Amino acid sequence: MTSAFGKSDRRAFLSDLGLGFTGLSLGAMLADDGIVRAAETSAERPSAHATPPQQLHHQPRAKSTIWVFLSGGYSHVETFDPKAALNKYAGMTFDKTPFENPVNSPLHKKRFRSVAAEEINVRDVYPTIYPMQVGWKKHGENGIEVTDWWPHLAQHVDNLCFVRNMWTTDNDHAAENQIHTGRHRLDETQPCIGAWAQYGLGTLNENLPKYVVLGGPTRSDTRQSIDSYYLGPQYSGVPLALDPKNPLPFGQRQASQTFEEQRQEYELINRLNELTAVEYPEDQELRARIRAYELAFRMQSAVPEAIDFTKETEETSKLYGLNNDATKIAGQRLLAARRLVERGVRFVQVFPSGYGTWDSHQKLKDNHTRLCATIDLPIAGLIQDLKQRGLLDDVLVVFCTEFGRTPGLELRGGGKDGRDHHPNGFTIWMAGAGLKQGYVHGATDELGYHALGEGHYVTDLHATVLHLMGLDNRKLEIPGRKRLDIDHGTPIFDIFA
Q1: Taking the CA of residue 197 as centre, how many other CA atoms within 13 Å lie in the half-sphere pointing to its CB?
Q2: Which ranges of 51-174 does DSSP label H, i.e. alpha helix?
Q3: Mean pLDDT of the chain
C-alpha cells in the first residue's frame, strides 16, 4: 500500500476484507482509557470529531443514569399532575372560567412553534375543557397527588421527585427527538443527552459499552434520540436485543466458527489495521475501528451475561412483572437496565413501548388505562429493586415523555374522548442519586395548560442529569460548534438534596 492509495480506496479495501462492522452500534463500541478519557495529543485529535474532557468538572452524585422514555406523550393531568378544575369546569370554554384564558397568555407563543402555517394550525387551541378521565389521591408523607392508574408507583412516591413545569416547543412527534437532543426539528441537530454523558464520562466496565439503548430507537426517524452527530459515532447509543443467545447480531460469532478461530481472526484484523495505522497515523476512524473490535470481542461474553435473567429470583421476576404478558416487555427492559448499571454501564436509555404508543387523540381513558398497567408495576419494581440493593444511592432514574396533552377536548376528526399534543406544560419525575425525595418542584396553572414561571425547557433536564453525573454542561464545548444558551440548559438546583 502506498501514499497514492486514496483514503476512500483504502477504506473500501478494508471493508472488502471485512475489517469493520457497519452501522450505528459499532461506532459507539470504543475503548476507554480510564475513569475519564484523557485528552488526545494534537497529532491524534480528529478534526471532525470532539475530544473528551480530561476530568470530571465536580464531584458526581450519580455514577449511572437509567432514562425511561414513554413515546407518544402521556397525559400529565391523568398521571402526575391532576387538576380538579378540569372536572369543575368541564364542557366550558377557557374564557368562561374565572382563570385567565391560557391561549391569550404570552407563554402560549413562547412555548409553541408550529411547523405548519399558523393560520391552518389548530393544535393546542381546543378551548372546550375536557374532564379528568380518572380519579386521584394524595400519597406519601407530603401528600403528592397521583392518579389511580398508578397504584404500584404511588406506593413509592416518597422516593420520587416530580418536576411539574416542563415545557418544549415542538407540537408534533419530532418532540421525541427534541427531548433527547434539545433542538426543534427546524434547527440544527445536536447530540443526544446519552451521547453527551458518554462523551464526558469514562467507563466503569471495559467489557461493556458506556451507553446502551433498550427497545429503541422507536423508528428510523427517531435515531436522533440516540445519536451523537458531531461528537463522533463512538458516542452514539448501542442498541441491545434482550436475547442472551443473540444480543449483538452485528457481532455474533458464526455457528461454524470456534472461539479460537474467531480470536485468531480478530488478531489478524488488528494486525492489518495496525499496519495501516502506521501509514495513516491521523486516521481516527481507523483507530476507532481497532478499539471497537477489541471491545466487540470482549462484549460477546459480557453482554449475554448482563441480560441473562435465569439467575434472578422468582421474587425479582414478579417484582418486574415478567410473569404477566401485559408487563413482561417493559419489565424485561427495566430489569436489564438494572443489571447493566449494576455492571457499570453509565447511561441506559429504555423505551418500554413502541413509537407513539401513548398518543391518545381519541379514547384516552381506554388507552391510558391499558398503557399505565403495562408500566406501573415494572417501574415501581425498578425503584424498589434499586433501593433494596443500595443502587438508588448512586443511580439516577429519569421518567419522561415528549410533551403532555391538552386540557381541552380534541375536536379533529370528530374527536370526542381524547386530548391533543401539549408542549406548553407537562410533568416528568426523577429518583435516586443526589435528589430530594417525596418532592414536587414547579407547577402548571389551574387547568394544566402552562408551566408557571420560567418553567424548564428540556435542556434543563439534560443539565440536571449531567450535573449529577459530575459534568458541567456549559463546559462541554466543542471547537467550531457553538451551542445556543438554551442548548446548555440550567440544572434544577431546587430538586438537589
Answers
A1: 34
A2: 84-88, 106-110, 151-154
A3: 85
DSSP structure class, residue 481: B
| Nearest residue to 424 via CA among 34, 144, 39, 94 | 94
C-alpha cell at 488: 446548555
Q: Which residues pair with 431 in a beta bridge?
A: 160, 397
Q: Find residue 36's DSSP bridge partners.
A: none
**What's this model's pTM, rounded to 2 decimal places?**
0.85
Per residue in 405-429, pLDDT tens? 999 999 988 889 999 999 999 999 9
> To the nearest 10°, the Cα dihedral for 257, 258, 259, 260?
-110
C-alpha cell at 349: 436509555
User: Domain residue spans in the chain?
Assistant: 53-254+302-495
β-strand pairing of 426-432 with 395-401: antiparallel
Q: Which residues pair with 146 in a beta bridge?
A: 137
Closest CA to 89 of 130, 127, 134, 126: 130
Distance of CA 385 to the CA centre of its chain: 20
Give just the sign of the alpha carbon dihedral 22, 23, 26, 27. positive
pLDDT for 231-272, tens place per residue? 988 899 999 988 877 766 555 656 676 767 666 776 777 677
Q: Can you tell me which residue has the cell 381524547?
A: 418
For residue 453, with 0-12 CB atoms within 10 Å meaning exposed, 13-18 middle and 19 or more buried, which class applies? Answer: exposed
Of 162 and 29, more confident: 162
- CA distance to 69, 182, 352, 452, per residue, from 355 (Å): 10, 19, 10, 29
What does DSSP assign to residue 251? G
Which cell goes with 120? Answer: 391552518
Cis peptide before 378 (omega within 30 of 0): no
The cell numbers describing 313, all together, are 429470583
Q: What are the residues whose beta carbons fall under 8 Å from the beta carbon of 164, sequence distance 6 or more?
A: 76, 80, 81, 425, 427, 440, 441, 442, 443, 444, 451
Residue 34: CB partners within 8 Å, gap ≥ 6?
Answer: 202
Q: How many residues does the chain have?
A: 497
Helices (H), 309-448: 314-319, 325-342, 364-388
Give CA angle at 458 (455, 463), nearest 5°: 100
DSSP-assigned beta bridge partners for residue 68? 350, 399
H or E element that contains 13? helix 7-16
Place of cell 445536536: 190
Query: Is 53-254+302-495 a domain of CATH 3.40.720?
Result: yes
Q: Which grid cell is 453?
A: 414561571
Chain centroid to Cα 6, Å, comes to 39
Helix (H/G/I), strand (E/B), else coil: 86: helix
